Structures are given as C-alpha cells and as structure tokens.
Input
Amino acid sequence: MDKKDLTVELPNFEGPLDLLLHLIQSQKIDIYDIPIAQITSQYLEYLGQMQKLNLQIAGEYFVMSSTLLRIKSQYLLPQNDFVDEIEPEEDPRDELVQQLIQYSVFKKISAYFKERNEEVPITVSKEASVSKSVKVQPLPKGQITSDELATTFSMVLRRLKMRKPNTASIQAAETPINDMIDFLHKRLEQKKKVSFFSCADRMQSISDVIGLFLAMLELSRKHEIYIMQAREFGDLNLERTDVNGK
Output
C-alpha cells in the first residue's frame, strides 16, 4: 500500500502504539515481520498531517518516531565483511513487536471489561464495611497478582509465536469468550485442576489465547475457579471450586 493511499482518522488514536497497530492491521502486515521503512514513512506522514491541522501532538508520538528512525538506521548500517563468522544479532524490531502485542492484548481486555461494565445494572455505592484502620492483608501464598498474570500471559504469547511460522499474519476474527468458557468447563469436568499453559498449547492463534485468558478471568470473577501460581513467571494452575464455592 502506497502511503498516498493511506487513510488515517486523526482523532481516533489513543497513542503511538494505537496508531502503529492500526497501520499494521489495516494493511494485513505480519506483526512479527514489520517492514520498518514503510511503517516509519507512514507514521511520519501521520505526524505531518497533524501538524498541518495545527493539532496538539503529545510528546510520546515524537518519542516513538525517534524509536522507529533508530530501528530503521540499524538496518542501514553496513555489515562487516572482514569477519568470517558473524554471530546472529537480535532483531532490532523485537522490543517494538513485544510492546505492540502486549498493547493489542490489553486493548482487547479493556474493551471486554468496558462491555461488561455497560451490561451491569446501575448500582449505588456505600461506605466500606471494613474500618479504615484495618490493614489490608496480602494474598495468601500461592495466589497471584495482576502484574504476575500479565507477565505470565506475555510468556504464553511468546510460546505461541515459537510454534507459528514467521509468515503468519494477524487474523481479524475474534474468538467468542463463551466458547473458551465451555472449553475450560469441559477440561475442569475431567480434572479438578488444569494447567493454563497446557490449555494454551491447544490454541491455534493469538485470538484463541486471548479468548482463553478472558474466559479464565470471567470464571474467576464468578468464583467458579481459583487461579494459583507456584513460582514467579511459572504456570497458572486453575482449580475448580465446589458448588458451595470451596
């Protein structure tokens, strides 16, 4: 796609990662093989359109433009022809790719919770039943925090990437959460405890893994399962609760 053919709706982006994700998805570009020169040119074209319209540009957009130009310049550096064996270097796009994947995941999770919030009837808040003087108790040993959940989920995405060829592309199709809830119900009917990693290994796409992750959160919210982690960055163990929630 030529940058002249690119249509960008300026007010609709929440930040530079949102813009980059739009450029990649709208052109059906493989997120693991980003044509950095093409994307950088289109990104700078977008900033130019904002300046022409006298729109205020957040500083993070310029930070991202410098990041893109730095990555592009690394590809333009000449290779050392005098070294017989060149050790393979890390792809300079890797860090950006991981940021885009994590942003895509949390954007979908945010949209899911926003939709759930709109479905919940209006409620009236009340003062906390527990006195403010009562100290908040830490989670019992073996349970997991939201940061640990996010880190573990990123590891699952990397595992999925390793099973996929580099020519894979992002699919627009979404995996219904109800399908993944049914999948987890069937697994937990067979065993009281299941591994999240083993469930994710059965998935065929990133959309499936995201659907599985959201289904796990939904079942936890309904107190149908417990989520536990034996060690940092380790697997998540999902345990079915009894009828009385124990």
User: Anything to note?
Assistant: Strands lie at 193-195, 225-229, 236-240.
